[in-house]
Design goal:
single chain; 317 residues; alpha/beta; Arginase, Chain A; 9 helices; globular; binds manganese (II) ion
Length: 317
């Protein structure tokens, strides 16, 4: 028997280096997104992963407040190995930290969007990419406010089963079904350069955004859809919002408002890779509700979406 007294550092989440992979076992240890260091220091940071555990704006099944925790746990399997398919360790060239979670006052739902926006604006002002783990889809509105403040009006690329263009009550409602309506009203996004992918429900208005429904993806194939998105967005600064319910319930059962006929995980990930050259400025993945999940299917998909953004969508110097 060999007794090893020296081993690679573990507990990378709170005492490891910011660069390079971690040696924590996949099945244990202190969790953070892909074992990145917990830090609120934004100096020299390329990307910040941040949780917003808020689900008081859901219209059907609640539970997305548990999303950030589940996504972090599922992401543990990625770290320490070269990433597929690049074969590279993105953390050798990109400094990524986990900021932990936004503080949410669950007794003050009306005040939550401003709290999210204030902290998001601080992160975005640093120049780092902000990758937010929701939370229900209402959290995207204050995230867009924070990003538009720095970058100006954005092209929104929205993966979703739902348009989220329902009545926003003049802008004051806290709803996961109307963030697009308010974002267009406030000039945060440019509807003529924005596009929704995977839609398979109907709302009373489209707010001027283009729609490629899920059946267009199934029938048209990845490259034709990707080209349509590239044509729509052009070289505008772009924001990715990825509602996990864009995936079929077979690939994302753990969500609040599932709809049959959706994309597979592979289709969504292939689209992300095909869109890597857009001028991405930030992203979120929302509506992961692990109480309805099975074998972490949904959390694995969501964590892979974030991993793909880190690997492909951040321009490296
Ligand atoms: Mn949505």
């Amino acid at each position: 028997m060999v007794v090893k007294t020296e081993h690679p550092p573990v507990d990378n989440a709170f005492r490891g280096p910011v660069r390079g992979g971690a040696a924590d076992p996949t099945f244990a240890g202190a969790l953070s997104f892909m074992r990145r260091r917990y830090s609120r220091d934004l100096a020299g940071v390329d990307a910040v992963v941040w949780g917003v555990p808020f689900d008081c704006a859901t219209s059907n099944r609640p539970g997305a407040r548990f999303g950030p925790q589940a996504i972090r746990r599922a992401s543990a399997i990625f770290d320490g190995d070269p990433q597929y398919p690049s074969g590279l360790d993105p953390f050798e060239t990109t400094v990524v930290v986990d900021r932990g979670d936004c503080w949410i006052d669950h007794g003050d739902t009306a005040g939550v969007p401003a709290a999210i926006e204030a902290e998001a604006a601080e992160i975005v002002a640093s120049g780092a990419h902000l990758l937010t783990l929701g939370g229900d889809h209402s959290v995207t509105l204050p995230l867009l406010r924070a990003h538009a403040r720095r970058h100006g009006p954005l092209a929104l690329v929205q993966f979703d089963a739902h348009q989220d263009t329902w009545d926003d009550g003049g802008g004051g409602r806290v709803s996961h079904g109307s963030f697009v309506t308010t974002a267009v009203r406030e000039g945060l996004i440019r509807p003529e350069m924005s596009i929704q992918i995977g839609i398979r429900t109907v709302a009373p208005q489209d707010c001027g955004l283009a729609i490629l429904d899920a059946y267009a993806v199934h029938a048209g194939g990845i490259e034709s859809v990707a080209q349509a998105v590239r044509d729509r967005v052009g070289d505008a600064p772009a924001y990715l919002t990825f509602d996990i319910d864009v995936l079929d319930p077979a690939f994302a059962p753990g969500t609040g408002t599932p709809v049959a006929g959706g994309l597979s995980s592979a289709q969504a990930l292939m689209l992300m890779r095909a869109l890597a050259a857009l001028d991405w400025r930030g992203m979120d993945v929302v509506e992961v509700a692990p109480a309805y999940d099975h074998a972490d299917i949904t959390a694995i998909a969501a964590s892979t979406v974030v991993q793909h953004y880190l690997q492909f969508c951040i321009r490296r110097a």
